[in-house]
Amino acid sequence: MIIRDATEDDWPLIHPFFAQIVAAGETYAYPDGLTSEQARALWVQPPPWRTVVAVDGEEVLGSAITGPNRPGRGSHVATASFMVAPAAQGRGVGRALGEHVLELARADGYRAVQFNAVVETNRAAVALWRSLGFSVLATVPEAFDHPVHGFVGLHVMHRPLTAPGR
Q1: What pLDDT, on a 0 to 100 scale, did the predictor assign at position 162?
Q2: Is the pLDDT of residue 164 over 70?
Q3: Which domain holds residue 48?
Q4: Domain of 53: which CATH number?
Q5: How confident is the model at residue 5 (pLDDT cuts 50, 70, 90)?
């Protein structure tokens, strides 16, 4: 598996699993029925945002986006989103993407990474992020309408990249 910056040619390979994950309604609050162009506008954003893909040969196994969590005075903290193709889950793709994004954020000078909305019932993601040094700062109760579990919380998760005060 190689992780690299996404190219224009990658979107047609990302979109099918993006659409499948969004349609499942278990991990992202994106609206249903997005066109490919609407989905691309959410996932492939201009700099300083970066979109990366994990590939095995010609197959795109997953993708991540990262950039500033807030503009201006909040731009020293990164955020990120991740999607792993359902057929590639359980193969370490999410961990590899997570580690890669942490290194990108550090190299780009961010002081921390903050996830604003990790669905609390997404146990695999919560466990992965905890194993990579993230902590849950807060859980917004009933902030996500899960198709199976009903209204569940969204975790705000955080991981510092620098020592405090540096």
Answers
A1: 82
A2: no
A3: 2-160
A4: 3.40.630.30
A5: very high
The number of distinct structural domains making up the chain is 1
In a domain, 61, yes or no: yes
CA distance 155 to 138: 6
Element (H, E) at 50: strand 50-56
Q: Residue 26, exposed/middle/buried by CB under 10 A (0-12, 13-18, 19+)?
A: middle
Burial of 137-155, coded b for 16+ CB within 10 Å and e otherwise, reads eeeeeebbebeeeeebbbb
Task: In whole angstroms, give the CA distance from residue 135 to residue 126.
Answer: 9
pTM: 0.93
Q: What tokens does 118 get?
A: 């990790």
State both tokens at 101.
């994004």
